[in-house]
Amino acid sequence: MEIVYGPVSSWRLGRSLGVDLICQKGKVCPFDCTYCSLGRTTELTTERRVFVPTERVARDLGEAMKKVEADVVTFSGTGEPTLSLNLGEAIKVAKEISGLPVAVLTNSSLMNREDVRRDLAQADVVVGELDAPNEEIFKRINRPYEEIRLADMIEGMKKFRAGFNGKFSLEVMCAPENKDFSKEIAAIARTIRPDEVQINAPLRSSPVRPLTPEELNAIKKDFKGMNARSVYETKKVEVKKVVGPRKLRQLKRPKARKAGR
Predict the structure, then answer these.
(1) Second-level CATH architecture of 4-250
(2) How far apart are CA 61 and CA 66, in angstroms?
């Protein structure tokens, strides 16, 4: 299966060349989020293991860099990147081979673990996630592995932010189920102190209705003073050539996008 894909036109990161450290036919994740464009989670787990050898990441990324131009290398794909036991090692290799900043998109489910925070600290940019104000909404929207608690996730993000030298952004995926709780979510976000808040909506194929620009603008007001921006406030980044077309189709990401990553 293809490890490296893109670059895609990312509203958050520019021309983003993806690396899938999970690389499975189904989705492997500690969450089974209602809005996920990949559909239901096929393996709900918190077990960290090596899915893709670091040597293959190095080889495939090196080949891709000869063919495409990108602004950033981003670890994302068919599951939660922090489940990969060699994440820290792969980030270091990606920096060496690409010469580009490295970002990780994580749902923050394992950020309460010291080994995960240590691996994530190797990145230049980390985008965490906070979709709920309490355990009830958390279980309803993110449908986590039974041992995961929202309070532990929040504490993990606080610890990570306090010791991280790079840019830490916090994504809030807004959907009908949590849109009326934006004030409470914003209050929690202020305790985490991210560098940026990304107000997002499920614009790719999803079982959940994406909120309108007007709805997201109303939510954004609750994050005043937190350097918040909405997915709808974006400019299209041109992507001329891509690698990993099968992976792009699997992830439902077109070659060039106006918004949505």
Answers:
(1) Alpha-Beta Barrel (3.20)
(2) 9
